[in-house]
Amino acid sequence: MxxxxxxxxxxxxxxxxxxxxxxxxxxxxxxxxxDFLKNADYYIAETxxxxxxxxKTKKSFVECPTLVDIISILxxxxxxxxxxxxxxxxxxxxxxxDFLD
Length: 101
Prior knowledge:
Layout: E1 2-5, H1 7-11, E2 22-26, H2 34-39, E3 41-44, H3 48-57, E4 58-63, H4 64-75, H5 83-96
Antiparallel strand pairs: 1-3, 2-3, 2-4
Helix pairs in contact: 4-5
């Protein structure tokens, strides 16, 4: 199982994320808040058994390829986005099921 402490650690590893699969967070946390996402613990299964365990014990957050796409769209901007802007784009996608341009 892969573990990342904080959104910065997760976003720094985009190139090594699996092509499929979900990113999970703690089940009892509210995903709609940027402060939570900035410091959250993120989990990614590397085996089918880990995926089953995470589905039972954690909350699905976003699919790995979707996170890569969200970040890639923001990276096309002329000015490098801040961590808060990346988190805002993820929250936008999570709420609207649409990418933030």
